[in-house]
Request: fold
Amino acid sequence: MAVAMPLRENAAVIGAASVLLGLTVLFIGISELGQNPAERDMDRIDADRR
Reply:
């Protein structure tokens, strides 16, 4: 069952979700910066094998 939300609350929820997604992408990008590209690829291959 769908529940109608006032526009203001809906915008707040969308904004909060957008901020959380943006922070997640930022943290992943920062964690990748310190690694050598070859090591980063090997880490991804190892993770795919698990």
About this structure: Helices lie at 7-33, 37-49. The radius of gyration is 18 Å. DSSP finds two helices and no strands in the chain.
